[in-house]
Amino acid sequence: MTPASTARDAAAPSEAAVPLRTTRSFRAYRAGEAVTLAGTSVHGVALPVVAVLELDASPGQVPLLAAAATAPAFVLALPAGVAGDRYPKKRIMVGTDLAAAAVVSVVPGCWAAGLLSVPVLYAVTLLSGALTVLHQAASIAIVPEIVDRSQARPANARIAGAFSRADTAGTYGGTLVVGLVGAVRALWLDAASYVVSAWCASRIRPSAVRREAADRPRMLAAIREGVGYVMRDPIQRPLVLSLAGHAYADGIVTTHFAYTLLTRLDSGSTGLGLVMGVTAAGGLAGAVVATRLVDRHGPARVLSAGFLAYTVCGVPLLVARPGPVWLGVIALAGAVRTAAAVAAGTTQRSIRQQLCPPELQSRAQQTSVWLVTGLRPAAALTAGGIAASFSVHSALLVGTALCLVPASLLWSSPLRRLTVMPALPLAKDGPHAS
Question: What sections of the protein cross the membrane (predicted)?
């Protein structure tokens, strides 16, 4: 598929398209994923409190706990993509949700029995992270199977909006619940959210295309097939590489973001919480405007503008001085930055879903996840090295400047000619109901 033909092959609305608000599978999917994301946000608030205040975790143990949460994504992203393409996605979603509910319940269960320890938290975090990787490989790639292809962009925008609301509500709600009932008991809410998500996933009725068993390549061959497909495609290759570059640049900045607010800008915990809350809320705005922007300006311009806006909105952190006015400016810039990221993110996801054959959806998605996840630890090390050799401000400056690279990469690639959304290719064997 050439870029020119991609630009011509706009996805025409299907006669069989059903409004999203009346699509039971889509409503069940969005509700279940939003509920479990809210529970995960509660988990993100409660688990550090359990580690530090309940178990007196040392400064050396806390980073290990954070590493345990991110390591599974890099190790398992590509195999999870193979599993998502090879087995029914709905079954994976239900199974991983129920397993995650059981894993999270170990923490309050061990606490009640007097057996809770930091190594138990390591194990729970590793297992939860692995289940999340497998779940997301199926849950992201299942969207084209539950909505008409002409509705991919509004569907992804609505999903992003629901996720932004759930993330914000879970963070603030988790803080409140931890204060009322304690951090350990709050984790029961996270476990319950997985059960609700499993029930919602069980109500999804996807149509799927799956290879017969005799046609399935071995794991490594299947991984190579997925990675090779993405890297050979003239549209998806620069898209994935730009996302990876953005993750690396953003990782340099976020490594010292909270540190800068708390030290150089004297924000205090309240100011930090305010900035983070307003920043997260910007995601809802990005989800609302994403579809309109793509319709008016085209996906290439929305993606490039999103990356550029992200860079511009990082400048206030570089020049800010202590005081509430600057905290407000940083919070507002953070909201715009998140809105730009969500608008660009929903657009790139829709492009990938509409270009990718159904039998490669999960592997194409997980190739991106693997590259992005793999570069984040490198970004943190880079930020630390620059700060140690020069200063924290130098690290922020380098990270902000590098955010320009993804926009340049996109605009120098064939993707810049993508003025309309591409069409979803048909599967080799034709779709059939699962």
Answer: 34-52, 64-82, 94-114, 239-259, 271-290, 302-319, 325-347, 368-388, 394-411
The CATH number that applies at residue 64 is 1.20.1250.20
From residue 90, give the alpha-carbon distance in Å to each of 86, 93, 205.
12, 5, 8
Q: Alpha-carbon distance 223 to 379, whole Å? A: 25
Asked whether the whole model's pTM tops 0.90, one would answer no
Whether 305 and 390 share a structural domain: yes
pLDDT tens digits, residue range 278-330? 877 787 778 778 778 888 888 888 888 888 888 899 999 999 999 889 999 99
Helix (H) or strand (E) holding 208: strand 207-208
CA 345, 346, 349: angle at the middle one, nearest 5? Answer: 85
- Structural domain ending residue among the three candidates 216, 243, 269: 216
* End-of-domain residue from the set 216, 241, 272: 216
Q: Is 217 left (phi over 0), alpha (psi -120 to 50) or beta?
A: beta
Q: How far apart are CA 183 and CA 48, in angstroms?
A: 9
Best CA proximity match to 194, nearest among 103, 126, 70, 123: 103
Q: What are phi and psi of 323, to 5 degrees?
A: 135, 155
**Residues found in the chain:** 434
Range of the domain at 142: 22-216
